Amino acid sequence: MLSQIFTSPVDFILHVDRYVGQIIQNYGVLSYFILFLVIFLETGLVITPFLPGDSLLFITGAFASSGYLNIFIVFFVFLFAAVLGDSVNYLIGSYFGEKLFSGNRFFKKEHLEKTKGFYKKHGGKTIILARFVPIVRTFAPFVAGIGKMEYKRFLSFNLLGGLLWVSLFTFAGYYFGKIPVVQENLTLVIMSIIVISLIPIFIEFLRNRKKR
Asked: What is the domain partition of the chain in residue ranges?
């Protein structure tokens, strides 16, 4: 199961509902740790921006609405993972900085530049806004570390952003997951969330292309 998740991330993203169900069925209480690990890696390491974020929060909330998981434990597990992930990412950026992007094929320079542009436009609140933008969400705390943002200031944005992000998607899944039409079309709902979350990146791509 775990090997499937990490060796086939695209398949995992496209079939989150199937995987979450199997994780809960096969691992029981350990499911909380596995879900924590996915969100922690998605927010904490610049090499794993492809892991599911928004959709995983939503679908887990939906499973919690059916009684398979405790929604409050899910909420705090995800919140802790999101805040801790950003903090670790910040520290990595602070200590290693842009050296990681020098001639390393595992780190895409364009993702770093895109996040820097996001910072330039939105300032410190980027940490909050980036929570809702895939890829940028992963790189924002890293760039904050490179820029030596004061950690206390970063942590305040980190906590608020994590709270808003986890609350919105997890409880949306919890409440809307009870609706029969959502339960019957869970895969379609997940795909819709992924597409909607990618819209900001697509718009930014079109803007950059138009400027060039």
From this structure: 2-211
Q: Which two tokens stand for residue 127?
A: 């940490």
Do residues 90 and 96 make contact, with C-beta atoms less than 8 angstroms apart?
Answer: no
The pTM of this model reads: 0.77
HSE-up (13 A, CA, CB side) for residue 57? 29
User: Which pLDDT tens digit goes with each residue over 124-164?
Assistant: 788 888 888 888 888 889 888 887 788 898 999 999 999 99
Cβ distance 73 to 166 under 8 Å? no
Measured from the Cβ of residue 113, the count of other Cβ atoms closer than 10 Å reads 14
* Closest CA relative to residue 172, chosen from 149, 137, 150, 197: 197
DSSP letter for 130, please: G
CA 183 vs CA 66, 174, 178: distances in Å: 10, 11, 7
Determine contact, residues 12/41, Cβ cutoff 8 Å.
no
C-alpha pair distances (Å), 39 with each of 23, 75, 142, 184: 15, 12, 16, 26
Instruction: Give the span between the Cα atoms of 209 and 193, in whole angstroms.
Output: 25
Say which residue the tokens 């900001």 belong to: 200
